[in-house]
Amino acid sequence: MREENNNAVVETAQDLEQGNVQEKSKQQKRENRRRRRLRSQMFAYLIVLVLITVSITGLVWGIKKVSAAVIDHQTQKDARIAASESSENTEIAIITPDDEEVPLASEADEIVNNRIDATLLNMTLEEKAAYIFFITPEQLTGVDSAVKAGSSTQAALEQYTVGGIVYSSNNIKSDDQIKEMLATTSQMSRYPLLLAVSEEGGSKSVAATSLGITGTKAPSLLEGSDDAAQNAGALGSYLINYGFNMNLAPNLKLSDAENLFGTDANLTAQMASAYISSLETTGVSACASSFPVAVSDPASGLETCDLSIEELQAGTFVPFECAIDAGVDAIMVSNIACPSISGEGIPCSLSGSAITDTLRGNLGYDGIVITDAMNVPAITDAYTSDQAAVAAIIAGADMIFMPEDFQAAYNGIIEAVNTGIITEDRLDESVRRILRVRYTYDAM
């Protein structure tokens, strides 16, 4: 009996041991399956990560390729447009290794526009109001006769940032003197200056007469367009050498006087076109005068021109149209009354119908418009200096030439802006035209 019990105990122990072994085997299998599952998950995660990485890399590469293709296409398109515009509007220049590369016309325009915008942004209302005035050095400084740019000029230019100064024989004494005076004045100015003289050729040339320069002809003695171009080139060469950058010429009045091209409108137009193109090639701006008809005697009162619009178009307008086509930088508007375009008893220099409607509208001129001298009886008999200045700007002029009382005219412009009679944007238009001329020459 005891032996049977012992055998039963042994069998039970063996069974337990066998059960334990089986249980361990199952646990080992479960552990092995868990590890295999983890490895499979890790491998799957790794594959997904690789796929995502590859996809992102491919997407980025594709975007870059597409962007590069779009940019390249646009660049080629822009280049074709620029090349087309350049071939239509500019001459082709052959550049040798020693030549400086000149910017394309569009690039030069952009440079000029950027400089104009930057300058206008920094100008105060007072500076803009002063910049539209074209005066003598005596009007600027208050001295009797200015022959040197010294402390009084410096102080005056700091207070009044005028846009133009016109010189007469009283201001010109010698080569070195006028060179130094103009250079110093230009350096003292906060903004680009128009430094002008009236130099028509022959005995009517202010600088040549004062300095003993010979060799140029009076307009009446010129023999055709080539002669006019050669004469203007000679004038411009010595003017720019002294420091002048504007010539108050040519005079386009139809007359057989010494300082005029003649009575034939078409011949005057041809001569004027050649004269202007040649002069401005030297770096000196031309100012054609006086639209539509010059006065006979500035010292007298208001003169009247009774020509009809048809007569003006067939005669006196013709030379101005050719001057505009030639790219004239400035046109001076006469103090004469011309009822057919200015209204009855109104000087053209103060008439919106004459300047804005006719000169700018009908003739298409967008350069600088300068009034005739405002210190003559045709103006002073009927207007104060401030009234004339304000009327000229409202009419469409850009620069007030030699007002009777510069300070009064200047203050009148500021008051007109402050009271809303003239907008500051209107001043900006004129300042922009003046700056464009000077900055364009700087960019050449």
UniProtKB/TrEMBL annotation:
Reactions that this protein is recorded to catalyse: Hydrolysis of terminal non-reducing N-acetyl-D-hexosamine residues in N-acetyl-beta-D-hexosaminides
GO annotation (BP), single: peptidoglycan turnover
Glycoside hydrolase family 3 N-terminal domain span: 139-437
Membrane-crossing segments per the record: 43-63
Region feature (Disordered): 1-34
Keywords tagged on the record: Glycosidase, Hydrolase, Membrane, Transmembrane, Transmembrane helix
Entries under Gene3D superfamilies matching the protein: Glycoside hydrolase, family 3, N-terminal domain
An annotated Gene Ontology molecular function: beta-N-acetylhexosaminidase activity
Enzyme Commission numbers on file: 3.2.1.52
One Pfam family matching this protein: Glyco_hydro_3
SUPFAM superfamilies for the chain: (Trans)glycosidases
Family the UniProt entry places it in: Belongs to the glycosyl hydrolase 3 family.
The name this protein goes by in its record: beta-N-acetylhexosaminidase
